[in-house]
């Protein structure tokens, strides 16, 4: 393990992250509010901490191995979770403790959208912008952003990219060079953000709200600048734009890249994962609207259509925006939506959950096993589209699913051990490990009522979900630390 090289990289990345505190300082000056000092102090602490970490090992050079990449990714997300909490701590008017500050920061960076704050409408614009900015940075992964500039720092980035994106197709690259891949991802991400901002702004949002909500929409984050989330605006055009960009944000960015490169939408229609993703969202939307209208939960069809489709897309893509307190609806719809979040977005997207591709492969593997029962000697091949899938990938998906279920059960039992009821414990773990945000029961509004131990468990859950479990769990294996 190259600890000196890792320390050098952490120092550089920490200095880079400190620059994200400059926009909130500018916004505080523009609106002439009182939170700028908190961001200024945080900037100084983070920049000089990173500088001194870098200074002592500045002459250390060397290539990162795959194990080093896993260490950097996990360490940097842990460091960022703490570093990102500093403005919340230094801004005394928030009156939150260290645990709550880290919870809010980790929730933002992992694009979970779970919050311990209330009274958002009365918070300074700089604090609100910072929360949205955290989600935007976390959406594509600040590690990928760093990889785009790694050639200037003299450090290779392929190991970081593989550790950050450990999905079943993790080794695929859009372009031959990893730095170019990272840049391509960010260009698409930035383009979608700008388009979303313009849509919100033209639909009636203020420029500030449009920027903030475009950050949390494209990142599939779900933070809002208002307590009522998007329900604050009561504007069907804003809701339509949100649904559109939540849908786009949940698609594999490699498909966006291919479609833009060749100016052809056929790439979406040929992709098996996209077709399942669109099918799941359509079915969940139809069921939600039908139940709300036919069950007289929402008597007006137009309103049932708005509420049903919006919440189906928002929850199923793990964004977490709301128009109303959907947790108060009859249990069928909230529970169905919560289970839809387990599927989540596509691999290579900003969405959470287990990812559509894994669920699709699990279904196909189940079909293969049933076919083997009928025809024991048949050679049945799992295919995605027309391409066969190797047994190694199938085994990896099964391993991921087993680990997912195991850690989910353990964390749920830990929350129940501290006195939480089953609904609250189940939904809190589901909402955090799937990077969704809003839950049911005691966490339907926010997570302020959870205990200190509970919040640290849920922070771990958010990190597991963001790094897709194995990236974090591999560090607990003795074999990882053997030379």
Account of the protein in words:
- The protein is mainly α and 483 residues long.
- Helix content is 65%, strand content 1%.
- The protein has 23 helices and 2 strands.
- A two-stranded antiparallel ribbon has the order 1-2.
- It is globular and about 65 Å long.
- The N and C termini lie close together (8 Å).
- Residues 146-156 have low confidence and may be disordered.
Short synopsis of the structure:
With 483 residues, this protein is mainly α.
Keywords:
globular, mainly alpha, 2 strands, 483 residues
List the helices and strands and how they pair.
Layout: H1 3-18, H2 22-31, H3 36-55, H4 66-83, H5 86-90, H6 98-109, H7 125-140, H8 142-153, H9 158-164, H10 178-203, H11 207-218, H12 236-249, H13 253-262, H14 266-270, H15 272-294, H16 301-316, H17 332-343, H18 356-374, E1 383-384, E2 387-388, H19 391-417, H20 422-433, H21 452-466, H22 470-473, H23 478-481
Antiparallel strand pairs: 1-2
Helix pairs in contact: 1-3, 1-4, 2-3, 2-7, 4-6, 4-9, 6-7, 6-21, 7-8, 7-11, 8-10, 10-11, 10-12, 10-13, 12-16, 15-16, 15-17, 16-17, 18-19, 19-20, 19-21, 20-21
Low-confidence stretches: 146-156
Indicate the overall shape: globular
Please trace the helix and strand order, writing H or E for each element: HHHHHHHHHHHHHHHHHHEEHHHHH
Distance between the termini: 8 Å
Rg (CA only): 22 Å
